[in-house]
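Retry 2 of 3 after timeout on previous attempt. Resubmitting structure tokens to design endpoint.
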């Protein structure tokens, strides 16, 4: 009988907060993405390791920008490695979370997730990614509002228990606010004529689900 193990991996506690403030004709955002330690989840002989390879993304005084500019921002880099003899199929998810206050719409968040040394990066709008309907495997302190599948791939297992040659994949992740995000339009008295995105917040966490598989 073929054995399959489905293991939720709270691989990262990526905590992104975009807080927008109105100041005359410009806005202030702060985006923080961080991972401080390795994460290893293991069940029997099936395990994966997640390790961040770069410092946090921390953008102060940022603003809605074009995709061309977004693709030039400093990425967050992380590696997923198979540390067992069993081959693995894995999917990387980005889960949007409930916020305190008004949530910045997913349609205003652009992202790029690519394998390092892989295909050329492309920009995509978050809400165009494939929706994951089952979030029961993920655990966050806040309610998951929506889950998106960003990447699915496979990793070869180690050749034997004592080796360190399990398959690995290194990714770079970029996130930015789409240039369509606008400040509120106000009259001379400061009254809002058209609402903008000031004061809105975006929070999300990344998770990975891995399934034992057999590769040729």
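Retry 2 succeeded. Sequence:
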């Amino acid at each position: 009988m073929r054995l399959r193990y489905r293991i939720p991996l709270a691989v990262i506690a990526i905590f992104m907060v975009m807080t927008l403030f109105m100041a005359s004709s410009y806005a202030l955002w702060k985006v923080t993405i961080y991972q401080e330690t390795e994460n290893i989840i293991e069940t029997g002989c099936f395990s994966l390791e997640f390790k961040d390879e770069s410092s946090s993304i921390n953008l102060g005084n940022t603003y809605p920008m074009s995709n061309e500019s977004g693709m030039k921002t400093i990425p967050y880099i992380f590696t997923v490695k198979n540390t067992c003899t069993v081959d693995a199929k894995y999917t990387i998810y980005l889960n949007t979370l409930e916020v305190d206050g008004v949530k910045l719409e997913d349609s205003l968040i652009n992202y790029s997730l690519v394998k390092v040394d892989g295909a050329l990066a492309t920009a995509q709008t978050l809400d165009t990614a494939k929706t994951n309907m089952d979030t029961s495997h993920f655990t966050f302190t806040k309610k998951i509002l929506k889950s998106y599948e960003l990447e699915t791939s496979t990793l070869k297992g180690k050749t034997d228990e004592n080796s360190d040659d399990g398959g690995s994949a290194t990714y770079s992740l970029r996130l930015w606010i789409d240039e369509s995000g606008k400040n509120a339009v106000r009259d001379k008295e400061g009254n809002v004529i058209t609402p903008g995105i000031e004061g809105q917040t975006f929070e999300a966490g990344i998770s990975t689900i891995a399934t034992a598989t057999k590769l040729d």
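Attempt log closed. The CA atoms of residues 118 and 127 lie 24 Å apart.
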